Amino acid sequence: MTATAAPATTLRPRTTTATDSARVRWGRRFQHGGWFVAPFFVLYGLFVVVPVVRGLYLSLTDANISGDHTTFVGLANYREALSDDLVWSSLWHSAKFTLWVVPMIVVAALLMALIAHHTVHFKWLWRLCFFAPFLLPSAVVGNLWWWLFQPTNGMVNHVLGLQTPWLAQKSTAMLAVVIATLWWTVGFSFLLYLAALQNIPQHLYEAAELDGAGPFQRLIHITVPNLRNITGLVLALQILASLQVFDQAVVMYQFGPGPEESTRTFVQYTLEQGFTSYRVGYASAISFILFLIIATVALGRMWLLRRREEDAR
Questions:
Q1: Which DSSP state fits 75?
Q2: Is the model's pTM score more than 0.90?
């Protein structure tokens, strides 16, 4: 009886899926660039992620500044914060400051960029003068404007011919902080606008001029539309920065809340609770409320930008 040989098993090559290709592609990318970005992720985890997680834990406790006898209290700090009148008043002061200073910075930065861009002579001097204040420390800016706003020998009243106690009355206290902040921080937005202006194709202006468009028409129909994206960026950055206003207001009012507490901002009240009242847990809860507000603004900006890109396709 002759034995019949078993048929040989045919080995089919494994089919490469899209997931496998993506895994190989990302593996190669990490192999080439992963070690370069690894130090950043390590530092980011140590100095951002870990403090955020630690702060979230403290916001759920009654921790004090000494760190002794910490008890888990759940959401009690958040409930107290939502019923705290000083939380809402300080939040309103930060919001009012933001509503005042952000439009001023956008308009002033655009005008300054237009001047520096179209000036024929001494362009470097205009750019230096407009950007230089941004390089000053906040303590220098606060003390400088504290002296400028003095009612008797201050330069502001001397130039305007007034005797207004800018820093001593409620009606002008926040306005003084807004003016100082505008002078100090507008240089950064000016630089962004100046870079964007230099990227607008010159042939657009030449074609519009040949068609008889004047300077104002070229500004409205060419410059402003081409600066739409950078304006959105400036708005987002300034809103996020203005909601965290602290340094200049505290220095200008000698580490106090201003007349009738009119300049106590949200960040200042948070630090008062943490380092004056020693309520670290409550201060952490307040800070996370501000974090949620800022995150909402940032995510809203990203959503609007994505919608705009989808509509442009």
A1: T
A2: no
